[in-house]
Design a protein that fits this description.
The chain has 116 residues and is mostly helical. It has a single domain, classed as Four Helix Bundle (Hemerythrin (Met), subunit A). It contains 4 helices and no strands.
Length: 116
């Protein structure tokens, strides 16, 4: 096997593990979303949600999941802004919308990969 073939084989393995991890990350995002955006804004799960989105964002584009990476980037920016401006209802709505958009991208990527 050539170096290029070995590289692509390893990259495919990393992509597959990332896709498998999306199942758990998707569930975690949904749970933290529900805790963050209840009747009142809850800061502790909102901070955790921001961190989970940040970790999802990091490898997404590198591994070829551009839609997830872009959506996670927007989501992280809005959540970070919301943490600073907690009383602005426009930021709350934009952040909640960004999270649901990210979840849609995660679900689409999982569906394209055969529902890993």
């Amino acid at each position: 096997m050539s170096q290029a073939e070995e590289f692509h084989s390893r990259l495919a393995g990393v992509r597959q593990r990332y896709l498998q991890r999306l199942v758990d990350v998707e569930a975690e995002i949904k749970q933290l979303y529900a805790k963050s955006f209840g009747a009142t804004l809850n800061l502790q799960p909102l901070q955790q949600l921001t961190f989970v989105v940040h970790k999802l964002r990091g490898p997404a584009k590198t591994l070829g999941f551009d839609d997830i990476g872009t959506s996670a980037e927007v989501c992280e920016e809005r959540l970070t802004h919301l943490l600073c401006e907690q009383t602005n209802q426009r930021f709350v709505k934009q952040s909640a919308s960004a999270v649901t958009g990210l979840l849609a991208q995660v679900a689409a990527a999982r569906a394209q990969s055969g529902g890993v």
